[in-house]
Amino acid sequence: MGKTIAAFVFLQIISICSSWPLSTNSRWIVDDASGQRVKLACVNWPSHLEPMIAEGVEKKPVSEIARKITASGFNCVRFTWATHMFTRPEYRNLKVSESLDKYNLSAARDGIVRNNPHILNMTVVELHKAVVDELGRNKLMVVLDNHIGRPGWCCSDNDGNGFFNDPDFNPWEWERGLVTVAKAYLGNPAVVGMSLRNELRGSRQNELNWYQYMRVGANLVHNQNPDVLVIVSGLSYAGNLAFLKSQPLDHIPSNKSVYEGHWYSFGIPADKWAAQTNQICASVTKATTDNLLFLTQGDNPFPLFLSEFGINQRGDNEADNRYIGCLLAAVAELDLDWALWALQGSYLLREGTVNLEEFDGVLDFNWDRIRNPSFLDKLQAIQHINQDFKSEHPTYYKMFHPLSGHCVQIVENWIVVANCKNASKWEQHQDDGPIKLVGSPQCLGVAVDEEAPRVSEDCSSKWKYVSSTGLHLAAHGGNGGYLCLEMNAPDSKLITKKCLCVGDNLVDLPTCAHNPQAQWAKACRSNWSNIPNFKLAFSPKRATAELRHSSSIGNRATPSPSASAVASSPFSSDYNSATSAADDDNGRDRHLRDRSFRSYFQSLFPHFLFPNDDLHRSHPHRSKISIVILVAIVFAAVISVSSLVQRLNAPYLCKKDGITLQCPHVKEPPSLWENPHSATTSWKPCAERREGVISDLPSENSTSGYIFIHAEGGLNQQRIAICNAVAVAKILNATLILPVLKQDQIWKDQTKFEDIFDVDHFIDYLKDDVTIVRDIPEWFTDKAELFSSIRRTVKNIPKYAPAQFYIDNVLPRVKEKKIMALKPFVDRLGYDNVPQEINRLRCRVNYHALKFLPEIENMADLLVSRMRNRTGNSNPFMALHLRFEKGMVGLSFCDFVGTRIEKALMAIYRLKEWPRRFKDGSHLWALALQKRKEGRCPLEPGEVAVMLRAMGYPKETQIYVASGQVYGGQNRMAPLRNMFPNLVTKEELATKLELDEFRKHVTSLAALDFLVCLKSDVFVMTHGGNFAKLIIGNRRYLGHHLKSIKPDKGLMSKSLGDPYMGWATFVEDVITTHQTRSGLPEETFPNYDIWENPLTPCMCRT
């Protein structure tokens, strides 16, 4: 009973704490508790370069930097991190002092000793967290930005960090990084958002993978930390989200998702900006609207965070000077959330240069003062909220002047351009109509050239927006021509002058020597009522979460910048001094949020959790007693809730190799039998033959000669060799002699081509591509000479040879000898170094020409039907390709669980089969450990069972096992069969008589397994190899709606080898990792074969 009461109290407390700062409502970011709009006005602070240390810590105390940020009008910091910093031990365990030593940053070390001595013994990850906490103390919100994979400067097309599957952008590692950071900052009240990735780019970028990985990343972050906003960037350096118009990104957190974009002046020369300012501004604004800003408009708008923009703040880059006014006009009009690049005045180390100055930085080189106060002043208009969708105040318009960043005000008898907080309010202006003051009969009237306009009850002046920018406000002047509003620079007064860079017809001049921005004006909608913008002044519920975070990271004060908080900060000069300043409700150091939290809880538990002050002063020990009682209640609640959860889960026992695991039985989710993201793809097969001559290949009317190959290995290695042989015949314009299927030491099978494949279909289907004959021509009498005579055999073909190699080295010999054998012929043709039409030909051979004999196809269909009806009803089934034959285990040279006798027998077998490689076996131990760590060892049946259970597949799952004789027999299979008793092979599905016809050839039995796996609802591979590769490729080519699971064996090895990992963590790791390993088409990359992923060039968009 006591546990139940404690649990009830605990759950009541949790319900009070459930709210978290920010969410979204339509296109706005809002305070989750009140629903009021929150505007992000951020500055970027990098921590992602090689040292992985927040820039500037060697120049100033972090607490001082945080105060400078607040004093500059920002309420938020976009704080960067690199993936490897959180995923790789050699990075995350690096201490600040070690990082400085690594890059010989001795001067920076000296600076840190002076300014932030306590951070030297922190790891770089601990420093990252400490900086975030310090920002929170200064009431600054934080957006964590995954800026790059490998720490370093960003960005370029070929830096290896641009897109998924780039050398330093492993999708799995990226996902793990997101999960790690989301967990690390769970409960931190300063962290309001996480950006999934900065500036996706490069030759490998594509929309298909974008949808796939962004969806996974968004859900990973949200599942781990549901409090934060999930911020999604687009393609082309975060400059393009236009594809969302035709296909929205669905299945992401609906009220937590924000899109982000970047907008810079890059790519347009300064002289062009200077000569055609209006035209360029109009053009880039339209492009940015089409690619990014459209998201804030229409019937279904979304929040857009302009997370990077900026200029050279020395003022000597004219392109930047012209572009920034253009950008500010758009940002002010839409009232966007934004983050300026950048805060830092210098870098510890950037691209090999130590202490490099950053001229785009808000702070100067020494981080002492603002580099360009006038530029910072330009931002004041966009730093506060202008449009509050919940405001009850009437809507009006401000006349914004982008060049100055100020707004039009009426001050006594003058119209001036000044701070926007006191801007005059205007009614909505209809083009070619009067501009009227709100609540007044007065209008803005045009004057003669170079005189001030006037405000009076004369509303005869008709104003219109002119030029391609729509930023010039013009009206007919006294002389009959048009005059534009302009800010007079010396005194900031508004005057009317002849329109700059605009002709008498109000169209932009082709070129112009003037800067028209002095005349730019933008009517910006507002209902702002001088309410200060949001900072971390939390509601009672947030304060509870903040208290929870404070207690979770040790004896740290709340982020309120009180005296006690400053003293407890590692960045305070008094960090080591003992402070015990009293703090009561009336003290100036107590923040409003602390009082509201206190009063809120006191209303629930009067005189219990928070005794009144008089009682506290007279009985100080009662506070301590209350705290002890509260701790006891929470402890009891944790125990009871844990017990309750375990009972509700109704766990059953999972056993693996004698180890008992608690495996919660979870309800089977529908996605188990579906490829969850297949609906978002739009690819179809398109490997059909293209008419015309293939460039760079010989074009002759008659054959160059004959080529002949032996296709070695198992069925699927032979299949690949046949596809390559057809391709080489096409390259050489040669006649292909039907390949011979040659046995090897593992498969030990001698099967003819016609025993497996339909020869007539094969020859007929390819007749328009390559001439194929069944046998060696009769005129060649010495058939034994083939493959035995050096004169008739080409033996020097390198692996993955380009097409040109065959033209230069093989073709002359074929022409000379008329018939040549190619040996060896395993993987002797490349993929990205041959014409695309040749790759399409290989796809046609693989997916269309190589058709199994009808009796094999029919038997496979019968097996599939029996699998689907094993329960009496039509049920889905899984096909498991279990690669654990004795030959594969031996060849892998990996170490596996087993008795000493088993290991000794395996050593004898390896020594016999591979004597040169094995020797005595002792030198292979380190290699075996490394291979297992890297995921290059076959999964054991027991490991497969635990993995499938972690994915959620229930005990009742119907599983078809495609494998040879499993090494270790039934003992090795026992863990898998115990966890999945509905495990069958073709021998159990078919009678002996039915299979006898196929037992003549091992490859016939392999063909049955191939077809059943191909048609299964879910296919699971357990090790590499041609069988699994071809199955996954075939399923992708034929529609990719069926799930194909490719396990991350490195993760499995690491997790199963961790004695301290709990089942829940293991389940989370398995599910998280395999969300993107379900068999969708993927963009190929160099040296990646087309058999597993035929997307390029054998598939195209529907």
TrEMBL record:
Its main location: membrane. Pathway: Glycan metabolism. Residues 549-590 are annotated as: Disordered. Residues 1-19 form the signal peptide. It is found in: Membrane. Gene3D superfamilies: 3.40.50.11350, Glycosidases. One of its GO terms (biological process) is fucose metabolic process. The keyword Transferase applies. SUPFAM superfamilies: (Trans)glycosidases. It comes from the Eukaryota. Residues 59-344 form the Glycoside hydrolase family domain. One of its GO terms (molecular function) is hydrolase activity, hydrolyzing O-glycosyl compounds. GO terms for cellular component: membrane. InterPro entries: FucosylTrfase_pln (IPR024709), GDP-Fuc_O-FucTrfase (IPR019378), GH (IPR017853), Glyco_hydro_5 (IPR001547), GT106_glycosyltransferase (IPR052272). Keywords: Carbohydrate metabolism, Fucose metabolism, Glycoprotein, Glycosidase, Glycosyltransferase, Hydrolase, Membrane, Signal, Transferase, Transmembrane, Transmembrane helix. Residues 559-573 have a biased composition (Low complexity). It is a single-pass membrane protein. Belongs to the glycosyl hydrolase 5 (cellulase A) family. This is O-fucosyltransferase family protein. It comes from Salvia splendens.
